[in-house]
Design brief:
mainly alpha
Length: about 140
């Protein structure tokens, strides 16, 4: 079961990155060029929110089925924090991904409250860019390639 969930989580991450990149660039371009915010922009932002939340649910399931999770009982906090790999998979990656999802959710929620196009794009650009940067810093790149 763990291998299947890990496979789904790993490949769904590519979709999350692609969609988040598209949404981020869409927001930056829309803000910079004073474009009118339309239904397509809304769908891109919403799809980013949905895809990232699905990844979060898969990640939570993976976290509790992973062999790394059992290391909490075996190694304790000190042992996990002393080991770079255990710290990445048990603490850094889950925490930073959760922060990224929170940033995406806040950005999406705040942008809906704005009445004109430029502030909508600005909010999305800020929060989605921050989320993208957080995600890029804590992806276990060695496991991807």
């Amino acid at each position: 079961m763990y291998a299947t969930i890990q496979f789904i989580h790993s490949y769904w991450a590519y979709l999350v990155l692609i969609v988040l990149l598209v949404a981020t660039f869409n927001a930056i371009i829309g803000f910079a060029s004073n474009k009118e915010y339309g239904a397509t922009n809304f769908r891109i932002a919403l799809f980013t929110l949905i895809v990232s939340h699905i990844q979060l649910l898969i990640g939570i399931l993976l976290y509790f089925t992973a062999p790394y999770f059992r290391m909490w009982a075996e190694e304790g906090m000190g042992g996990i924090m002393a080991d770079d790999t255990l710290r990445l998979y048990n603490v850094e990656h889950p925490l930073m991904m959760l922060i990224a999802i929170i940033l995406i959710t806040i950005g999406y929620s705040k942008h809906k409250k704005k009445l004109t196009s430029r502030p909508k794009f600005k909010i999305l650009a800020i929060f989605y860019t921050l989320a993208l940067l957080v995600i890029l810093t804590r992806i276990p790149w060695a496991a991807w390639f």
